[in-house]
Specification:
The structure holds two protein chains of two kinds. Chain A is mainly α. Chain A has one domain: lambda repressor-like DNA-binding domains (434 Repressor (Amino-terminal Domain), Orthogonal Bundle). Helices cover about 50% and strands about 10% of the residues of chain A. Chain A is built from five helices and two strands; from the N terminus they run βαααααβ. In chain A, strands 1-2 form a two-stranded antiparallel sheet. By secondary structure, chain B is mostly helical. Chain B has one domain. Chain B contains four helices and no strands. Chain B is globular. The two termini of chain B are about 10 Å apart. Classes of the chains: A mainly alpha, B mainly alpha. At the A-B interface, helix 3 of A face helix 3 and helix 4 of B.
């Protein structure tokens, strides 16, 4: 089974949200700035809890922030 | 560089800085190590205890200021991964030592002419001890590498 690739729009949404800094987002969701960097670079997939918190920080739904790139179900 | 990464760097540098001269000394002069071993073991235990106490207090104090957030899920993920590598290193070291001891160290009680020379026994003990130190080095190195790869790579 091919591994799924989860992309995200965090970087894009930060800039749309008044050029929010990585540090500001990190403080909002209660993680370190390094975690935000790792998420933006796609090196780390967040837990469901963190994914919801990030989505809530942007006022969006999880599926609008995190996207399945090679979704086998289309 | 995050606070957690700095802390891991400090532990790594301290362990290497303390143990490398120690092992160089005891492997060069295993017999001198009989006395040195006791003195060094006590000294190292005190030094590391003091370091860990100071480190824990400093960490708590710095976190109390609110400038450093508590460990989050990425920190825990990296620590878990480092622990896994350290466990592998420790297992390899202990298994190697056991195999070495089984085949190369005829201890007292085994029908051999004479028992293990003290120098050889001391060296063997030091290698076992070195295995634990290697595992610690692997743990902190794993954390540092994890941060480099995950956050900055």
């Amino acid at each position: 089974m091919a591994s799924l690739v989860i992309a995200n729009r965090i970087r894009e949404l930060r800039f749309k949200a008044g050029e929010m800094t990585q540090q500001a987002l990190a403080e909002t969701v209660g993680v370190t700035r390094q975690t935000v960097i790792a998420l933006e670079r796609g090196r780390y997939y967040p837990s469901l809890e963190l994914a919801f918190q990030i989505s809530r920080a942007f006022g969006m739904r999880v599926e609008d922030v995190f996207l399945l790139e090679n979704d086998p179900l289309g | 560089m995050s606070f957690h990464e700095k802390s891991a760097w400090a532990c790594l540098v301290l362990i290497i800085g303390v143990y490398m001269p120690y092992f160089v000394a005891v492997f060069r002069q295993p017999m001198a190590a009989v006395g040195l071993f006791v003195a060094a073991a006590v000294g190292l235990a005190v030094l590391l205890t003091v370091f860990h106490v100071v480190n824990a207090l400093a960490t708590r104090t710095i976190r109390a200021t609110g400038r450093v957030p508590p460990a989050d899920e990425l920190d825990r993920h990296i620590e878990l991964s480092a622990s896994k590598w350290a466990g592998l290193v420790l297992a390899f070291a202990v298994m190697s030592w056991i195999l070495f001891a089984m085949y190369a160290l005829p201890f007292a009680g085994v029908p051999e002419p004479g028992v293990v020379p003290l120098a050889r026994a001391m060296t063997a003990i030091q290698w076992l001890f070195a295995g634990f130190v290697f595992a610690n080095v692997a743990y902190y190195a794993g954390i540092v590498v994890g941060y480099r790869r995950m956050a900055l790579g």
